[in-house]
Prior knowledge:
By secondary structure, this protein is α/β, with parallel strands linked by helices. The protein contains seven helices and seven strands, in the order H-E-H-E-H-E-H-E-H-E-H-E-H-E.
Amino acid sequence: HMMSTTNCLQYVDARTTPLLDHSAPFVARALRISNSLVVLHLENASLSGRPLMLLATALKMNMNLRELYLADNKLNSLQDSAQLGNLLKFNCYIQILDLRNNHVLDSGLAYICEGLKEQRKGLVTLVLWNNQLTHTGMAYMGVTLPHTQSLETLNLGHNPIGNEGVRNLKNGLISNRSVLRLG
């Protein structure tokens, strides 16, 4: 209720606060009507599944949120990553998306890359640290990078991409004009 009664709340830190099935609709509604929230920390908030679907749906049309931190939520490669890819297709205002320490996998990265291809402006930082991404996922990212115009920081650390993964990224990075930092 706090978010819906104030018009100047800009920062919410709900780390380690589970967003469960029964409370997620209320948070999603508050996010839909919020016109001031800029930073949202939901690390380790049990978001996988329906809570993430409600959150992503609410944020699709949100023009104010700039930073979304979703680390340590056991987000999966299918349903959750599809929701995130869809969010990126519709929301070009989020500048930082932190997905570190989840289970995105290569198949989930394919969904996220589809959303990234639609970003003409917007996402500046994407953190995919420790998501079990391999050379297969880097092929998706390599094809996506020439289409991204605002992405400056891409963190792929702690993923077993190997030499083949680096080769899969190479041409995309050469064609890309925005990435300044690769981790």
